[in-house]
C-alpha cells in the first residue's frame, strides 16, 4: 500500500509541483491550502507524513504541528521554512517535527528528507521480543569502532566531553545532558551506551516532547489489552523494550507532572507496572535524560519535580553551542560532507576557503542539526568538486544580526537615561555573542567605530573574560 503524504501550503503552484513529483515517486499525495483544512482532513484520514509550510494564512507551523501531533501522534511532520525562520524551525524539531527543509525547495532534497522520515517509524512489537542472550561479547568497542559513527571535535570543550563519556560509560550512573537544541545530546547518549557493558542490548530513544500527555504512560510502560478504549492488543512499553540496555529520555522537562511521578517510582523501585495490570515486573535499564532548558532552575521553580531531578542527576554533562566552539565547525562540516556524499551519491572533495570562512563565522542557531542540513543542501547544489560560497544559504553569506534587547527582563529603573543605558549594554553584549566576540564585526553590525565600542564596553563594564 502506498504511503500517504499531506502537503500543506497556501502556494498552489508549490502544492501541484510537489504532488506531481511525489506521485511519480510512488506516494499517495493529498493537498491542503490552509491549516484548518489540513486538520479537518487528518481528523478523518490516516496520514503517514505531513509536509507543512511554516507560514500558513490561518496559523503558523508550531500551531499546526501541535494540532497534527495531538490528532495523529504517529504522523511524521516535516516543516518547510524560509531561511530567516530557521531558529523557529529548530523549535519545531523540539516539539516533534522530524525534519525541516528550507526554501527554495529542491526535489531531490525533499524526497530524501521524506524517505528518511518514513524509515524512522518506530515499531514496538505488540508482544515482548526475546531478550538478547546475556553472554560476554567477544567484540570490543574500540575507539576506532566508535569513531566511525561519532566524531569528536578539536576544541577544548569537545575533548572534555569525550573524556567524560569515557569515564561515564563503564558505570551505571544516571546522566542528565543539557544543551541547546541540535547540540548533539542524543549522539552523546549513544556514545555512552556503545562504550558501556550494555552495548549489546537496546538503546531506546524517546522524545518526551512528542509524547501526548494521555498516551505517555502507555508508551513508556506499556498496557494490557482492554485496559482503556483503543487498547486492542497488549503493548510493550519503551522501558520493557530497553531492558538490559539504555533508555534515552529526550526533552524530559516536557513530561507532565503525573508522568513525572510515575517515572520517579520506576527509578526508585526499578519496577514497571503496565496500564491495566495488577503486578509489577523488574527492569534493568540505564537512564540518560536530556533537556535544552536548565533543569536545576526548573526544579527550584517547581516546573520540574525536584526529587525526580535528583534521582536522574547522578552526573550532568553540559554541551556548549556550536558558536562557542568554532574550532569544531570544520571538523563537523567535513564529517557531514562525507555523509551527504554517500546519501546523495556525489563526490564533493571539500570547501572553498570563502565558503569555509562563512561557515565558521555564522551564528548557528540550530547548532549541529542546522550545520548538517546546510552541508547536505550545499552538496546537492554544488556542480564542481568543491563547495563554493554561492551554494550556501543567503543568511550565511550575508548574515543579519538581532540586537534587540529581550523584552522579558524585569529590571526596573528610576529614570529614562538608566533605561537607555541598560538597553544599549544588553544590545552590545548580544551582538558580541552573535559574532563570536569579534569586536571589529560587532562594531560594524552596531554601526559604530571600534574606539566607540571599546569606550562603551569600558563604560558598561563589559568584560569578555567572564
From TrEMBL:
PROSITE patterns: RESPONSE_REGULATORY, SIGMA54_INTERACT_1, SIGMA54_INTERACT_2, SIGMA54_INTERACT_4. The keyword Nucleotide-binding applies. Keywords: ATP-binding, Nucleotide-binding, Phosphoprotein, Transcription, Transcription regulation. One of its GO terms (biological process) is regulation of DNA-templated transcription. Gene3D superfamilies: 1.10.8.60, 3.40.50.2300, Homeodomain-like (1.10.10.60), P-loop containing nucleotide triphosphate hydrolases (3.40.50.300). Residues 151-380 form the Sigma-54 factor interaction domain. Pfam families: AAA_lid_14, HTH_8, Response_reg, Sigma54_activat. GO terms for molecular function: ATP binding; sequence-specific DNA binding. Residues 125-146 are annotated as: Disordered. Residues 4-118 form the Response regulatory domain. Residues 128-145 have a biased composition (Low complexity). The modification 4-aspartylphosphate is found at residue 53. The keyword Phosphoprotein applies. PANTHER family: PROPIONATE CATABOLISM OPERON REGULATORY PROTEIN, TRANSCRIPTIONAL REGULATORY PROTEIN. This is Response regulator. It comes from Acidiluteibacter ferrifornacis.
Amino acid at each position: 500500500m502506498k504511503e500517504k503524504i499531506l502537503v500543506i501550503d497556501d502556494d498552489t503552484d508549490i502544492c501541484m509541483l510537489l504532488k506531481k513529483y511525489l506521485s511519480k515517486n510512488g506516494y499517495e499525495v493529498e493537498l491542503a491550502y490552509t491549516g484548518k483544512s489540513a486538520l479537518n482532513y487528518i481528523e478523518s484520514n490516516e496520514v503517514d507524513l505531513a509536509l507543512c509550510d511554516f507560514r500558513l494564512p490561518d496559523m503558523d507551523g508550531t500551531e499546526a504541528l501541535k494540532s497534527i501531533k495531538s490528532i495523529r501522534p504517529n504522523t511524521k511532520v516535516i516543516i518547510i521554512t524560509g531561511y530567516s525562520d530557521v531558529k523557529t524551525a529548530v523549535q519545531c524539531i523540539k516539539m516533534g517535527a522530524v525534519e525541516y527543509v528550507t526554501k527554495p525547495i529542491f526535489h531531490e532534497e525533499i524526497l530524501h528528507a521524506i524517505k528518511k522520515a518514513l524509515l524512522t517509524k518506530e515499531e514496538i512489537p505488540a508482544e515482548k521480543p526475546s531478550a538478547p542472550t546475556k553472554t560476554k561479547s567477544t567484540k570490543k568497542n574500540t575507539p576506532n569502532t566508535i569513531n566511525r559513527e561519532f566524531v569528536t571535535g578539536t576544541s577544548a570543550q569537545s575533548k572534555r566531553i569525550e573524556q567524560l563519556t569515557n569515564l561515564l560509560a563503564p558505570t551505571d550512573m544516571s546522566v542528565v545532558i543539557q544543551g541547546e537544541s541540535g547540540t548533539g545530546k542524543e549522539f552523546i547518549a549513544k556514545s555512552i551506551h556503545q562504550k558501556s557493558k550494555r552495548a549489546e542490548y537496546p538503546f531506546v530513544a524517546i522524545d518526551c516532547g512528542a509524547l501526548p500527555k494521555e498516551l505517555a504512560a502507555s508508551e513508556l510502560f506499556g498496557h494490557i489489552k482492554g485496559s482503556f478504549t483503543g487498547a486492542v492488543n497488549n503493548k510493550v512499553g519503551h522501558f520493557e523494550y530497553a531492558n538490559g540496555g539504555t533508555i534515552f529520555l529526550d526533552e524530559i522537562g516536557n513530561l507532565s507532572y503525573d508522568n513525572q511521578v510515575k517515572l520517579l517510582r520506576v527509578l526508585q523501585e526499578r519496577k514497571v507496572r503496565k496500564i491495566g495490570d495488577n503486578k509489577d515486573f523488574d527492569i534493568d535499564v540505564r537512564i540518560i535524560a536530556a533537556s535544552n532548558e536548565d533543569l536545576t532552575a526548573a526544579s527550584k521553580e517547581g516546573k520540574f519535580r525536584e526529587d525526580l531531578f535528583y534521582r536522574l542527576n547522578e552526573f550532568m554533562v553540559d554541551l556548549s553551542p556550536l558558536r562557542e566552539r568554532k574550532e569544531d565547525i570544520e571538523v563537523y562540516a567535513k564529517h557531514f560532507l562525507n555523509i551527504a556524499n554517500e546519501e546523495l551519491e556525489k563526490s564533493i572533495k571539500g570547501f572553498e576557503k570563502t565558503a569555509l570562512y562563512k561557515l565558521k563565522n555564522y551564528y548557528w542557531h540550530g547548532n549541529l542539526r542546522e550545520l548538517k542540513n546546510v552541508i547536505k543542501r550545499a552538496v546537492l547544489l554544488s556542480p564542481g568538486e568543491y563547495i563554493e560560497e554561492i551554494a550556501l544559504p543567503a543568511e550565511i553569506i550575508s548574515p543579519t544580526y538581532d540586537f534587540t534587547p529581550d523584552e522579558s527582563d524585569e529590571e526596573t529603573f528610576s529614570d529614562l537615561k538608566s533605561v537607555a543605558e541598560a538597553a544599549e549594554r544588553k544590545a552590545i553584549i548580544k551582538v558580541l555573542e552573535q559574532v563570536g566576540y569579534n569586536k571589529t564585526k560587532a562594531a560594524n553590525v552596531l554601526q559604530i567605530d571600534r574606539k566607540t565600542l571599546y569606550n562603551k564596553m569600558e563604560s558598561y563594564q563589559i568584560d569578555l573574560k567572564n
